[in-house]
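Shapes recur. One chain:

:::
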Amino acid sequence: MAQDKPAAVQLCRFSDYLEDALAERLRLFRWFDEDDASRASFLDGMGKECHLVVTGGHIGCANDLIDSLPSLKLIAINGVGFDKVDLPHASARGVAVSNTPDVLTDDVADLALGLVIALKRGIASGDVHVRAGKWADGELPLGRKVTGSRFGVLGLGRIGHAIADRCAPMGEVGYWSRTAKDVPFHYCSTVYELARWSDVLIVACAATPETQKLVDGALLERLGREGVLVNVARGSVVDEQAVVAALESRQIAGAALDVFEKEPQVPEALRHSENTVLTPHVGSATVETREAMADLVIANVEAVLAGDPPCTPVA
């Protein structure tokens, strides 16, 4: 019986695979499909017994919603990022937060490398050139060589390390993190030192208050006119207007971005730039990884409903 299922708030759309798995186990209130009146009615009724919020890393869960759900036990994030959840606030309310780490590492690292090659070799512009029937009219400008570049990785967590491993066969790898690690890569003690050292700067650090707009105008100046920026982390880590200014003034050679400050809105200047490659936050967007992420979401939900801690709690 549907009424016997635990109540849950769903804050965004998921894959059919995860949607079906959630619907089998939960009475779902699809918050994103409802108007203000329906949401208020839910909170006054079923919301009082709601134990779960299921959300995406790009959505998180607002404090006012947490406070409106007195029985809330878990915010289950379908994604690795948890910067859109106020962890101290959730903890003070006794609400656990889980995410889906590890299973998306390979895909995000693969995309980062793909963006590097696409940007430096002009793959996206070449595709447009051929499809538009312009090949017979002339050749495109020459691209830049990838092999032999210096690859700087900003943040050497799971994903950053996987990116570094992929870049290492093609050139020298450097990195910045809060502390030096026991790895065979060149350590830079500041982000500015890393930018100055790098030909390609790949942003892979977590989004935190400390890393907000870490990639700023001063850092881009150090990256230099031949340098390129790649971001597969979070839009908040990069000062988007500084990137626009650096591209327009040719202060950097290009930018490949999978994430943006105000998704899904992307500044017109970035969309129209000839020196950008842009993708719609698809770092984990493969069939295999989205299924593995969904399995972790369900495992966390089932663990908490059984009275146990989540399988992959956010530290």
Remarks:
- DSSP finds twelve helices and twelve strands in the chain.
